[in-house]
Amino acid sequence: MLLESLGAYLPMDRLRAIADGSALPERAAGAALFADISGFTPLTNALARELGPQRGAEELTRALNAVYTALIAEVANYGGSVISFSGDAITCWFDSLQRTADSAQRNETGAPGSALSRSTLSAVACALALQHVMEQFAAVPTPSGSTVSLRLKVAVASGTVRRFQVGDPQYMQLDTLVGDLLDRLATAEHAARRGEVIVDIRSIPQLVDYMAISEHRLDERGAPSLPLLAG
After folding, report:
1. Cα 207 from chain centre
2. CA dihedral sign, ordered 26, 114, 203, 210
3. Where in the sequence is the domain holding 136, given as residue range(s)?
4. What is the pLDDT of residue 112?
5. pLDDT at residue 16 above 60?
6. In whole angstroms, what is the distance from residue 224 CA to residue 170 CA?
7. Is residue 7 included in any domain, yes or no?
8. pTM, rounded to two decimals
9. 97 is a domain residue
């Protein structure tokens, strides 16, 4: 019962580690997924206008819970863990299951069949599945009979990260990921548009035999190096 209660506040992999009596490594290999939802601001305005601030906030909370419950369940289905929430976005981690710094370093190349390659495939498959999940929120009805569209853009990057818990253990600790991978993830996310999945260029060798690339999006320097995956 306690672990079920903690599941609402802890990433799934940390919850498993607590249950096993083990510790997550500070250095890990795998893939990070960033999913950013758009449309909550128009929905907030519509509900407040039609229902008033209090009831509008209540209905917005129900909508938020429905969306995040669906997305988090899909992340769990693909073996990922939601690490953090930021605004209308979630950052997720798909670990390669290599539990030491040395093995994480060995798997950073993402050779076909490697643990890193499998985690990247899981993250990308999850990203495409999240887009499918969001179809049910493409026309959220409001009390007046109008609709508001909620959409998603997703970025995936793979490699190694350092992972920390920050905060005071007596009050609150939050998981965080640090490293170059997060910079590459941010670059990919900035190039993504609503309804799209973008991956960083370093992940392509792990995906080329499994995924179709519809185009290469320009990065921040204007170079065509950000692959857009076909849905």
Report:
1. 18
2. negative
3. 32-229
4. 47
5. yes
6. 47
7. no
8. 0.83
9. yes
Mean pLDDT of the 70-98 span: 91
Encode pLDDT of 100-155 as tens digits.
333 334 344 445 457 778 899 999 999 999 999 999 999 999 999 999 999 999 99
How far is it, in rounded angstroms, from Cα 48 to Cα 66? 18
Query: Is the Cβ–Cβ distance between 199 and 207 less than 8 Å?
Result: yes
In this structure, are residues 140 and 62 in contact, taking their beta carbons and an 8 Å threshold? Answer: no
Cα–Cα dist 127/146, whole Å: 29
52: left (phi over 0), alpha (psi -120 to 50) or beta: left
In a domain, 170, yes or no: yes
Q: Classify 179 in phi/psi space as left (phi over 0), alpha (psi -120 to 50) or beta.
A: left
Return the CATH number at 206: 3.30.70.1230
Alpha-helical (H) ranges within 52-108 are 53-77, 101-106
| DSSP three-state, residue 50 | helix
Burial label for 216, CB within 10 Å (0-12, 13-18, 19+), is middle
Within-domain flag for 211: yes
Of residues 93, 89, 73, 77, the one with CA closest to residue 24: 93
CA distance 212 to 227: 10
CA angle 92/98/103 to nearest 5° reads 125
What is the number of structural domains in the chain?
1
Determine the Cα–Cα distance for residues 25 and 194; give it in Å rounded to an integer: 34
